[in-house]
Fold these 2 entries.
Entry 1:
Amino acid sequence: MTDLSPRSGLRSWFSSNGRLEFCITLASVTLLTGACVALILVPRNAGPLQLATDEAEVLDTSEGIDNPRLSPVRRELQPYGPILVREVADGAAAEALLVAHPSHRADLDVLERQLGRAISDVSAVWGTEWNRAPVVVVASTPAEFTALTRSAGAAGTDVAAVSLTGSYTPGTQPTDQRIVFNPDARRRVGDEGMATLLRHELTHLATRADTVDGAPLWMLEGFAEYVAQRDQQTTFSQIAPTLTTRLRAGALPTELVADSDFTGVDAAYAYESAWSTCAFLADRYGTTALTTLYRRLATGPQSPAAQDAAFTAVLGASRAELLDGWRAWLRGRAA
Ligand SMILES: [Zn+2]
């Protein structure tokens, strides 16, 4: 759950000396970010020069190939084969980019239909002051997914993640963010599940500028899942099956879910519990209060006392009142 940066035009210069039959000429390609890429020009039998590139071949595109933000993606994906590219405009300053390999063309089609709406859904809660032109990549293999997310220090679920590819200064609006889908994501969660994942990861991306590592995960993950599930035609037990089972067995939570619960065997419950906390807060105090609480608690690690102070300041409630209200809300939904 993290994320990327703006790049402008791509200019390249290359030259060669035709009389040197075996010479290799390096031409530098300068991106707006200052990154450099080398193109190798190999003379072929004194004929036309053949260009060997270290960028993935673009097989088809909806006119996105000239988009300067595509170049870093093409370089990173080059070892994994040719790519397909789509642009999705939603009224933001730049177009969102969707990238997948030919083996995942159907995933690309699904995401192309869903992305504009997902961006709008996130903006409906968070506002439009975020980079609404993400780069979304569908990995073709587990190895590619790992490479694209691990290298960027991604966090998140194992079916999708937001990765930060550039340097990032907390408090600034990151633009070098991308969302990466696991190759099996659509098979595992279906088309509607892809839309939910998209909204969840887009929420992480939208809130990144206001989010500092170490902030309480119940707030970060619960908020992303609240935005992802909001206004969908899904029931409580569909969204939170593990939580529902426990509630029906009479087990009500006694505290907000701890950060340590988000990894390991109880991770599904942790996400569902965090979602239910935020869904309750939005239901009881309103979406604006929930968003205000997010901005306050996402500023870094929060002691129990600091969280208590935030509950009082934003919600006008003590922790005990919040927990009592949440449990009553849960009891009413677990029947
Ligand atoms: Zn998440």
Entry 2:
Amino acid sequence: MSGGLLTAAAASEERRRVYGRRKGKKLRAGRQALVDELLPRLQLDLPPSGPLDPAALFPRPILGLWLEIGFGAGEHLVAQARAHPELGFIGCEPYLNGMAACVAQVAESGLDNVRLFGDDARLILERLPRATLGRAHILFPDPWPKVRHHRRRIVSMPVLDLLAAALTDEAELRLATDHMDYARWMLAHLMRHPAFEWLAERPADWQARAEDETPTRYEQKALDQGLKPIYLRFRRRPRAG
Ligand SMILES: C[S@@+](CC[C@H](N)C(=O)[O-])C[C@H]1O[C@@H](n2cnc3c(N)ncnc32)[C@H](O)[C@@H]1O
């Protein structure tokens, strides 16, 4: 594993912002070799100070930047990056095995428009220049069902403030969960936030995944268990003036 990722992880551990597991089963030798070879090229390292320059992250000009927070094994991120070669994608995932699975898919697909960050998405959001994100996805985030753990939920007013700053006017924030209490929590937070407007007009809008999306691994697990996920699409309201 490259030193950059470990350094960023250690820094974040200090700040105690990422909850849950960072490592699962030991990677197979082949997968570890792929990660060792490719991650340094795909990995997004934060500059020592100041804002990130999104254009400088990619080897060719991009027409927009999308972010996925907690991409898991990366199927959705990779599918979106394949569908939109004109855009740049940043995926954040502190779980090392998920990162390794995503690196393998990016390599297989020969994508040059994906950059991966192995740490807390907030560290990226804090460094993105204002109004640079054309879309953000938070799909099936850890629900932290116990009340004493609710403060660990990634959907929170401070994170929505960061997203509101980073998203462009009219950009979409898309969320999904199969946990009904978290769905209510997401809705309550987003409806309270002045920068966001819920796009749903009819039940089908929150009962079905958007047509241009592919299912994530957690979503598929939920569907296989007969659960009915909730899909929330919010628009970043245009800034005044
Ligand atoms: C329940 S999993 C869902 C993964 C994937 N989105 C899916 O639907 O299959 C939630 C993921 O969010 C990641 N995560 C947790 N806290 C995070 C944070 N602060 N920043 C970025 N990702 C985070 C976890 O490591 C985990 O892989």
